[in-house]
UniProtKB/TrEMBL annotation:
Residues 7-61 form the Helix-turn-helix type domain. The lineage of its organism: Bacteria, Bacillati, Bacillota, Bacilli, Bacillales. Pfam families: HTH_11, WCX, WYL. InterPro entries: CBASS_pafABC_assoc_protein, HTH_11, PafC-like, WCX_dom, WH-like_DNA-bd_sf, WH_DNA-bd_sf, WYL_dom. This is Transcriptional regulator. Residues 145-211 form the WYL domain. It comes from Neobacillus rhizosphaerae. Residues 241-317 form the WCX domain.
Length: 322
């Protein structure tokens, strides 16, 4: 009984790995008669596995719908045989090593199915991301979403041409893609940069060229939440700035409702105003956010940022003086 069950499972793996495989081929691999294969196929169908042949008896077999079976755990013999793959290939012993053959069939059956599923899921995900963005804000760089997403799943190193706005520079880089991050209708890619030998955040709209290489990288340990700890949005710095901002009652409710990337300490006062405290590693994006509230937001600390805003307001007043 156990040998028959093993044969049935092997037939399922073979069909999944090679859709359209014929009964004669199954019989040869399993070392049984074609009649036994037909009986096995009936038993497989009765077990609820949708095996089918579109043209009837004697033709190739496949699975109906999206059925897929993942492989059984390796036996010690299969694991040993697979670990000897280079030697097996060189000595042309594949056909004479049954443990290697069954292990290979299981791996390839799963791999082929996962590859098809991954491609479909990636395409759906990219389509969903693109359809969710307002049409007037869709960046032309969205054409790179699919190859980047594929390389993230496959752990493939990318060769990119990237434009650095701050230095007005265009350069070629090799990067290992880790995460796609949406921020304010824009997309950013967190990747390991081989040139800088560290993680960097890239804006997709600044990619001029993206192509996958044959190099497979091993992912480094990266805690995304820890990496962006004390980061207001996407610009990551190396400072430690503790801001205190007092929002008046006119905007306090909106500030409390806003979904933020960093976690602030909020203290609400009886008059309806709100004290907003947060520690950040960079100031640019946070100051831009505070400025939008105008006189409804007052920076209390650090004092030097009060002076920075005073100077900005002085320049504005000078511009509109006349």
């Amino acid at each position: 009984m156990s040998s028959k069950i093993s044969r049935l499972m092997r037939i399922v793996n073979l069909i999944q790995n090679s859709p359209g495989i014929k009964a004669t081929e199954l019989a040869k691999i399993c070392e049984v008669s074609e009649r036994s294969i037909y009986r096995d196929l009936i038993a497989i169908s009765e077990a609820g596995i949708p095996v089918t042949s579109n043209e009837g008896r004697g033709n190739g077999y496949t699975f109906a719908s999206n059925f897929a079976m993942y492989p059984l755990d390796w036996t010690p013999e299969e694991a040993m045989a697979f670990s000897l793959l280079p030697g097996v290939v060189k000595q042309n012993l594949i056909q004479t090593d049954p443990h290697f053959q069954t292990a290979y069939e299981k791996i390839m059956a799963t791999y082929n199915k996962e590859q098809r599923n991954q491609q479909q899921n990636i395409s759906k995900l990219v389509a969903l991301i693109q359809s969710g963005k307002p049409q007037n804000k869709v960046e032309t760089s969205n054409k790179f979403l699919l190859p980047i997403a594929e390389s993230m799943v496959k752990n493939q190193t990318l060769k990119v041409k990237y434009e650095t706005k701050s230095r007005d520079d265009i350069n070629d880089r090799f990067i290992d893609p880790y995460y796609l991050i949406p921020r304010e209708s824009k997309f950013y890619l967190l990747a390991y940069c081989h040139k800088r030998e560290d993680f960097r955040t890239f804006r997709l709209s600044r990619f001029l060229k993206v192509e996958a290489t044959n190099r497979i990288f091993t992912k480094r340990q990266l805690d995304l939440q820890k990496y962006y700890q004390n980061t207001w949005s996407i610009i990551k710095g190396d400072k430690e700035i503790h801001f205190k901002v007092l929002f008046n009652k006119n905007v306090a409710r909106y500030v409390m409702e806003k979904e933020l990337f960093a976690t602030p300490k909020l203290t609400k006062y009886e008059d309806g105003s709100l004290l907003f405290e947060i520690t950040l590693n960079h100031d640019e994006e946070f100051l831009k956010w505070v400025r939008q509230y105008g006189p409804d937001a007052e920076i209390i600390e650090p004092v030097e940022y009060r002076e920075i805003l005073q100077e900005e307001l002085r320049k504005w007043a000078e511009i509109y003086k006349n």
